[in-house]
Structure formats: structure tokens, C-alpha cells
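Re: export button greyed out
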Amino acid sequence: MITLTINKISITVDEGTTIAAAILNAGVTAFRKSVTGEPRGAVCGMGICFECRVTIDGIAHQRSCNVIAADGMEVVTDE
Amino acid sequence: MNKVTTDVLIVGGGPAGMSAAVAASGNDDVRITVVDDNPRIGGQIWRAELGKLKSVEALELLALLDQQWITLVNNASVFSNDGSSVLAETPSGRIQIEYKSLILATGARERLLPFPGWTLPNVLGAAGLQALVKGGLDVQDKRIVVAGTGPLLLVAAEYLTSKGARIVAICEQTTNKKLDRFALGLWRSPSKIVQGISLRSKLRGIPYYRNAWVTKADLQSVTIQHFGQTTDIECDMFACGFHLVPNIELAQLLGCEVADGFVSVDDYQQTSISDVYCAGEPTSIGGVEAAVVEGKIAGFAATGQIIEANSLFRARKKTTAFAKALDQAFELRDELKTLAASSTIVCRCEDVQYGKLTDHDDFRMAKLQTRCGMGACQGRICGAAVEFLFGWKDRSVRPPIFPVKMENL
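Workaround output, generated via the alternate export path:
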């Protein structure tokens, strides 16, 4: 099992889980804010649409569907 | 910067790319490199579940690849080219890969169309939701409506059901007549998948509506139009995709000839540029069987194994007929052009509303005036939508074809 934080709340997920899946499993649906401030979530699941961008370990604009969760990762959404 | 030299570079590690790599490895003298932008090889149809490939076909290919001297680079987004090399961004920085031959196996993405509510966080692509579940998303007991068009709706619904979701309805926009003609033609197609799934879905008692399409969605329900009547269906998530569009951006960047939205290839899957080949969905949406046979031909041809390539021409012919049947069966109905309201966002990256686009004559003008198609996805989502809505086909491609960090440019 992998333990990471999403918006400072600790969550445990199966090995191989993507950050996008971990975020949704944590009950968070707003991944990012659009340019006019709308909440957006994952759409294409395969790295094409860029809607699921979040900050991972301080690096912004990571496509969360294309990143596998690792122990100790700090994920911040809705920025 | 890391620089790598290879004989055959394959961009895309799905069915076409993996098949191309195995075929190319039949020539012992060539070094082969496969790059893929997802964390695991397999592409979309063979996408790994929690990091593990499950498809028997994919595992067989992977076992063959493991025996060969093949370099596999995951999480690498090819964003530009430089002579006979490509530049890719990876989590550990930029790499330049120089090649003698290049095989483009870049696959396809879902076509997403705008309707009121399509930007809400509980609305996803149908293949998109399936991909997320394979990445560990828990859908146990979630009520899900699956809508749009194409065989993927059934594939997604079947998969989601197997993971404990409650599929409340499947809504296929095409007509009974077209679907029946397609089903009748399946006996001579290489694929029995759709037929089998269709049957299983029926057995599971999932309501399957034809001639039915979404008109709007909110956080609790979707509204479906079906034979002149609208029905609200309550659900937790809405998965909606309108068949597939090919990923041809890299081919366009390289200057390969494109016709009707697909990369033109000859009998050996060679594009208009010598030593650049293309296989799978970018040449026509034909599904996994087409991708595998085209990948093999490209892999053989790129490494001088011409007799082996020739031996597959007949097998490829069958898949071409299937691609054509798919096209006809899941053609989009005109009513879908009327779903977006004036305030409905069409370009999700730049939040450009439908009403802001209707004054423009072509994509270029719309881009200049509204920034439609100029955001992070670079028109990959709204490009297919405006092509359908307004007939705009002039989506230009320039490097970098994916957003990259400044330091990697």
C-alpha cells in the first residue's frame, strides 16, 4: 500500500494507483480551476486533455492521470 | 541533455507500437527504442490495471519484447523534432532520440462534444473513466450513465460493471438501422469483441438505448433525448464519448501527408516521408486488430523484412473493411450540433464559449480572436469538436506539440 497526502489529508491507495484515481478516491472532484474559475476534474484519463493538472511535490501542472502514486507524495488540487 | 541513438524509433507503446517492435526485432541487426507518454506500456485498449498488464495478447508481446534488445522509455512525451531525431520530455528531463527509421503508433483519443454541463467534474469521457478505473479509481456502487457513440461505450460499460459500478443506462446516438447493418457485418469482420460484449451487456440487464443522446448534464443527473422525448436520469457520474479521433500531431509536425484527418500511408505503412512509417489508429480508426497487423507490417518494412511484410497484406485488407463499417455505423447525427448553448464552453483550456465562436469563418480567425484551441491541450479536445460543429479542419501544428517546461525546450 502507498500513503500520500491530498490537500494535506493522508490517504492510502493500492500500489500502481494513479494520482488522478487517488484524488477521486479521496472524494475530491475539483482538480484545478479553469481560467474563469470553474472547478474541473479528470476527463480523458490518458494525458491528452490536461484537465486533471495538479501540483505534486511542489511542481505545478502535472497531469495527475499520468503519474503513479508514490509514498510520501504531497498533492495539492484546485489551484 | 540525454542523447540516444537508435535504428528504429517507435512512438507509442500500444498494440501497433508493440507489434511493430516485435516485428522489427526479427532483424537481429537493429536497435529498437519504444517511447510512450503513459506510465506503462500497453496503450489504451491494453492499458495496465494498477500497473499490471492483463490482456493475454499484450503479455505475449511483452514477453517477446523482453527477450530482445529493446529500449523502453515510459512517461516520455515527444514534443518536437530536429532533423532525424525527436525531442521528448521525461520526468528526469529532456531526451533527444536520433533514429534511422521512425514508426508513428500514436493511437487515438476520444471525441468529446460540448453540451450544457460537459465541463462539470462528474462528467468524463467513456474511455476516460475506464482508464481512470484501471488506474485504481473505485466505482463500487456508483450509478453511471454511459453515452455517446461507438463500440467503446459497450466496452466501458462492461468493464465498469465488472468493477462494481451500476450502469443506469447506455445511450448510443446512432440509429437502429445503422447498428443492425453493423452487427450483420460483424460475422466477416476480424473482431467478435463488440458482438460478444453487446450480448453480455444485455444479459446483465443494463438498459441500452439506441437513437438516444445527451442534451444536458448537472451534478445529479443527465437529460437524454430519445425518440422525441427527454428523460432525466439520476446518476453519480456521466461517461460520454463520441467514438475516436486519431493522434496525428507528431505526423503533422514531421510534415507527413494527411488526407481527411488521417495519415496517408503506402502498402508498407510508409508515410509521404521516406523512413517514417505510421500504423494503427492514425491511419484509420480500425481497432486493435488493424493496429496489430499494421504495426507488424511497419515493423517488418522498416527493417527490410519485405517478404514478411508482404505476407500480411491480406490480413490487413479485412481490417480496412471493419474500419469503414465502424465509420458508417457510428456517424454523428446532426442533432448533436445543436446541443451547445451560447454560454456552453467549447474550448475547455481557455474557457471559450460557443457563442463567441459562431461569428468566425475558420479556426485560424477563431483562434486569433478568442484563443480557442490555444491552451494546454493545444486543441486536442476542442479541435475535433469545432470540426464537427463548424466544419473547421485547419488545426495547425507547431512545436512544442505538448506543453513542456522552459528548461526542456
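The first strand of chain B starts at residue 2 and ends at 5. The button fix ships in the next patch.
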